[in-house]
């Protein structure tokens, strides 16, 4: 018995010791996503600490968990984070709510004018820059040069959807598990709806008209969804309704996809010989169009912002200025090579002759420049965002619509039913939110 | 009288038990296998995964990238702290309910259990705001108290069940011999209930160790336990299966080892009083 009491007392002492050890110096707490560029930054951040004496604590989370955590923190003014990694969807909404600290006073040597205009536009609200881009991405076509050649076709730099259909048909060899095209099918506003919304822009479709009426009953949306389903059902891999970025990446790297239209960041993965069996057989092209003046590519930037609840806004700004500077780019190039530099944020990077030699550099820049978040589609729209609508309600509406389209891909409902359901649920939610009567 | 069981029936039962056991264990086995492969190999078909080169690469990367021991220590403090605190409160409560039950004891027990029926997200905002106002966000003390409160109904119920199996006459005899209430609980009741208390302790440490909703929601950098360590290796854009598997094995290894060494105690406690 005495032993047990001792054990309990020991455990209590252990807990008390734990609390005592929790007192730590003030540091910057940075919430970030788990991707290659961010992890690389963590590895190089000692240079910042040595330079400034500011210690850094990292909270690395999966994208959706991070979004939930930082939203909760910023909405309650929790102050758990000094720097947050957020996307182009959050910045306009949070900036308008005054939840973020303005970065307009960054020092002159930061050279804010060097940031790519399309990216900067997506991070600015009423003239205030609320986040600095760490890396930017668009989407493009990645294709197997050997299969394209075997099919007797040549991929143009700027293909049309008709060519994509023709090439997908020619490259498909289901007996050998080679599928002409791999596209996202997993439901979610950042999953299949990112792709389908961007695709719909090139078909002239839009989410809402200027009075916020949903437009899923339009011919443009019907054409978008029918073509997507036709492509995927005829030439796509089996079980595509469960495929997101990672599933398609795995298929492409194993040589099972002829073409894959997805984030430009994938280029560095599919050309990496350590992981990809097709590393030396990959070509790149702009996302397809239909001759309507808009391409089916998106625009996204993971950016660093300071929440209004931070106790150390000046130190946080100092860190952001370091992590998104030209000097940081040079530091990465020196340590890891130019191919590993965070892409898509600064004009000067694309003017650098050494960076121009990276195989996917030019196509990434052209893809980013081809997207305009303020005028994403052919007709005028009341919202900003290329593959999303920058309103707080979009996450739930986008995911619900994504579920109906994913169900259509899985064969659980027809395209017409999916569109009708999408129209009805979007109308209901927009009425509830007070956008329409 | 014992029922006669044929050898054939015994063999079938054993086979079924093995199949069920393997099915339950398979995900952990697969995570273990994936953790010893490169990211490129981990996404291949199962047969190719097994035949490809085995490597410690993922463990090395995880070790280099994360402060494992800080997360581990946080997990130890939170799980042990919350369980011990829970036991300190639950032992007297369970004693009272088992040996001096009142009219409403059953109702109180049911009410306590009913708190487990509410989804945690239902009280997320109030608890988050309370922690924020008390300055307890990202602290271990907040998690110790919250996990203690979450597991308290289970601790009390388990102890209550064990205490009910102990004849009240023995405690009465102790009282007749002049034992005070404190002496009666410490020197008579607790030694008899050791298997039950030990299994309650072990089970609740495991529950607290694996708790992922509150530990992810209320922590940032300082108090994040191993659940946050695992969560940092998942990604919607990029290959992560091997590193995530390595992180998962590193996170569950301590509790698996503890469970392995204490399984006799755990089973004894869990089946305590099951056969009359």
TrEMBL record, chain A:
One GO CC term, this protein: periplasmic space
UniProt cross-references to Pfam families, sorted A to Z: SBP_bac_1
Domain of life: Bacteria
Signal sequence, start to end: 1-23
Cited SUPFAM superfamilies: Periplasmic binding protein-like II (SSF53850)
Key words, A-Z: Signal
Subcellular location: Periplasm
Protein name in the entry: ABC sorbitol/mannitol transporter, periplasmic binding protein
Main location as per UniProt: periplasm
Keyword Signal: yes
Protein family according to the UniProt entry: Belongs to the bacterial solute-binding protein 1 family.
From TrEMBL, chain B:
GO cellular component: plasma membrane
Subcellular location: Cell membrane
Name assigned to this protein: ABC sorbitol/mannitol transporter, inner membrane subunit
Entries under SUPFAM superfamilies matching the protein: MetI-like
Coiled-coil ranges (or none): none
Domain ABC transmembrane type-1 positions: 72-262
Highest taxon of the lineage: Bacteria
Matches recorded under Pfam families: BPD_transp_1
Protein's membrane topology: Multi-pass membrane protein
Organism lineage string: Bacteria, Pseudomonadati, Pseudomonadota, Alphaproteobacteria, Rhodobacterales
Keyword field: Cell membrane, Membrane, Transmembrane, Transmembrane helix, Transport
GO biological process entries: transmembrane transport
Family recorded in the similarity comment: Belongs to the binding-protein-dependent transport system permease family.
Main location class: membrane
Residues passing through the membrane, by range: 12-33, 72-96, 108-129, 141-163, 184-207, 213-233, 240-261
Keyword rRNA-binding on entry: no
InterPro entries to which the protein is assigned, alphabetical: BP-dep_ABC_trans_perm, MetI-like, MetI-like_sf
